[in-house]
Write a structure and sequence with these properties.
The protein is α+β, with helices and mostly antiparallel strands. Helix content is 21%, strand content 31%. α1 packs antiparallel against α2.
Length: 131
């Protein structure tokens, strides 16, 4: 039911490096940048696979306590997300693996972004169904 969401970031350049890498591992990318003459001079960008579904906004109140989970199409994408996010400055908040306390096929990884947001990639498909 969520069409898109977004967060504020303290250091746009650092966050952009992190999200460029994390989304590339999930088959997504930066899709649009809002012209700064429409944002009061702040950077506002949208990431996604086919439409912008996750927005970064420079300034405002960034920080911990926010959680966003992104759909991975395979367990390998979850693994790639984790590796890319860690290499781009993320902090481990739960390595890739099954989380059967959610459901038997819940495979996820959790990384804190540069502002402390809990960013997750999750695949709900059974391992044998993944190509």
């Amino acid at each position: 039911m969520i069409d898109h969401t977004g967060i504020a970031v303290a250091d746009y350049a650092k966050s952009k490096v992190f999200y460029d890498a994390a989304f590339a591992a999930l088959g997504g990318s930066l899709l649009t940048s809002v012209p700064t003459d429409h944002t009061g001079g702040l950077h506002v960008v949208g990431y996604g696979r086919d439409h912008p579904c996750f927005w970064l906004r420079e300034g405002g109140e960034p920080g911990p306590g926010r959680h966003v989970a992104f759909t991975a199409r395979s367990r390998a994408e979850v693994d790639a997300f984790y590796a890319a996010a860690m290499a781009a400055g993320g902090t481990d908040n739960g390595p890739p693996g099954l989380r059967p306390h959610y459901h038997p096929d819940y495979y996820g990884a959790f990384v804190l972004d540069p502002d402390g947001n809990n960013i997750e990639a999750v695949c709900h498909a059974p391992d044998h169904a993944i190509g």
